[in-house]
Design goal:
532 residues; 19 helices; alpha+beta
Length: 532
């Protein structure tokens, strides 16, 4: 009888990823935390945390035993272990302690290979910090300690009693979707101020209210001046009672099951104005710039997780007298997957490196403002196809719910949808290219010598197309954004990987994995995950 192959249930994610270590060597000086977290989050215990947190989904307790509203969401204990792990790693805080977004991105990437749902509150908390620091500095200063804490405090208590705080987001309403200008929730001033900010009362609803058990949310509501951003705590600001944010139900989602997403209603809920009244969309879009980076990171992590399981399976599974890893066609499939992941990893880290540097450097500004939404479109969409192909490598064993691959497959779509779906991203690329024309020109100039002849030709043609963009460009926005992402990836790869990438993605359209011939396929497979 042939030996059976189990999924990998324990793997030091740092030691098993030589390309991550290689790329970070020049970007992150102290990598001890990364090494520690890669071993911790890849352990068998953490894998079990992830599995159980997704099997035993959050439950809404709307009322207590005497009928009082409590709007509490109960989680499996392993959910809190996952939150404690990422919080303790410093992933959320390190950009504000050291200015290093690359270090943070690597920690999020390691965590996302094991459990994606817990990235949601971590991402929103991190993305809210620079927004609060800029637009509500007195509030940020008052909450700095618990916001930057490396502890996890799961207690449902007023903010003043918490050791650490989690922040969420509430923008989408049922009638509007991505059209935030159609917001119908209303906010009326009370005439009071707290932490130097005007206090309002909110009435209305949110169709998607992420992670309702967070200690506060940044929420969009309409004032006389227009849609505005508010800091809405779970408990009233005096700490005497729950704020009137009523959870109507939890969403039954395709994936991301460990994490609670909800519909809520506001009934005179307290909220502090963040930023100028009427400028709420601009404030929250600023927050979305950070969460879109996290979508790229999360999709890259899912690719890595699927690739690792597929390679492991092929090294142990035999068919027709040979190990799958030794069969030429399977090598092509795995090499194509490895190349896709390698390009996503390179782009993800380069984008993270640009954050915090765009104010003084035009090229970095273009990476952050223009290429990030392009990457969000392309990498997140490729992750869907990637997850399906990796699942197929395992055959029927990949399709059953008792394994990991089904969860990866269900997780993949959310990053394409959350924080702006494909069309929204493509149009944002066009708007950013027009707004940041000088920075984008500097980016083109910097990228040109990094590409081969094919890449340079494509880059120059794309540059000219963007210079002459008109109303018709909207119809081609997805193609334009995709080309920007692909050219960026080709420029970031080493020579051998770049040659294979250009041949299979630029000289021919990126299509079905394994359809294009990759010379020396085994090299890319073994490089992605060296045999132990």
């Amino acid at each position: 009888m042939k030996p059976l192959v189990d999924e990998l249930r324990s793997l030091d994610l740092w030691q098993a990823d030589p390309l991550l270590r290689e790329r970070l060597a020049a970007l992150v000086h102290d990598r001890a935390e990364l090494a520690h977290y890669g071993a911790l989050i890849g352990s068998e215990a953490a894998m079990d945390w992830a599995e159980q947190a997704n099997r035993r989904v959050p439950e809404l307790q709307a009322f207590d035993a005497r009928g009082r509203r409590i709007d509490r969401v109960d989680f499996h204990p392993h959910w809190h272990r996952l939150l404690a792990a990422i919080r303790g790693s410093g992933a959320i805080q390190c950009p504000f302690e050291s200015g290093d977004w690359t270090h943070s991105a690597a920690l999020f990437y390691l965590h996302g290979q094991v459990e994606a749902g817990s990235l949601c509150p971590a991402t929103m908390t991190q993305a809210a910090l620079p927004v609060l620091a800029r637009h509500a500095p007195t509030l940020f200063d008052a909450l700095r300690g618990p916001l930057l804490s490396r502890a996890h405090d799961a207690a449902d208590r007023p903010m003043a009693e918490k050791q650490a705080l989690w922040l969420g987001m509430g923008m989408t309403e049922k009638q509007g979707g991505s059209d935030l200008r159609s917001c119908e929730s209303r906010a009326a001033p009370t005439g009071q101020r707290l932490h130097g900010l005007p206090l309002y009362r909110l009435d209305g609803h949110k169709w998607f209210f992420s992670a309702p058990m967070c200690d506060a949310h940044l929420v969009l509501a309409r004032t006389e001046e227009g849609p505005s951003c508010f800091f809405v705590p779970r408990w009233r600001l005096d700490g005497h009672a729950l704020n009137e944010v009523r959870v109507q139900r939890l969403k039954e989602k395709l994936g991301n099951r460990s994490n609670s997403s909800s519909e809520v209603e506001f009934h005179g809920s307290e909220g502090l104005l963040v930023g100028p009244a009427g400028r709420g969309i601009a404030v929250l879009v600023e927050m979305a710039g950070y969460t879109r980076l996290q979508c790229v990171i999360g999709s890259t992590a899912l690719m890595r997780a699927g690739l690792v399981q597929a390679i492991h399976w092929c090294r142990g599974r035999s068919a027709f007298g040979r190990l799958l890893i030794d069969q030429p066609l399977m090598q092509q499939v795995l090499a194509d997957l490895a190349l896709e992941w390698e390009a996503a990893l390179a782009l993800m880290l380069r984008l993270a490196h640009s954050f915090g540097r765009g104010e003084t450097d035009l090229v970095e500004r273009a990476w952050q403002r223009v290429i990030t939404p392009a990457a969000k479109l392309w990498v997140c969409k490729r992750a869907l196809q990637f997850a399906g192909e990796a699942m197929e490598v395992l055959g029927g064993n990949g399709y059953v719910e008792t394994g990991l691959m089904g969860r990866l497959y269900r997780e993949a779509p959310v990053n394409s949808i959350w924080e702006g779906s494909g069309n929204v991203m493509a149009l944002d690329v066009l708007r950013a290219a027009e707004r940041e024309a000088e920075a984008l020109q500097a980016w083109f100039d910097a990228l040109l010598p990094m590409l081969d002849a094919t890449g340079r030709q494509r880059l120059l043609r794309l540059r000219d197309e963007l210079r002459c963009s008109d109303a018709q460009a909207h119809a081609h926005a997805r193609r334009i954004a995709t080309e920007l992402a692909l050219l960026a990836q080709a420029a970031l790869l080493d020579r051998r990987s770049a040659e294979a990438f250009v041949a299979t993605r630029l000289q021919a359209p990126a299509g079905m994995f394994g359809a294009a011939s990759i010379e020396g396929a085994r090299h890319f497979v073994d490089r992605a995950m060296p045999a132990s």
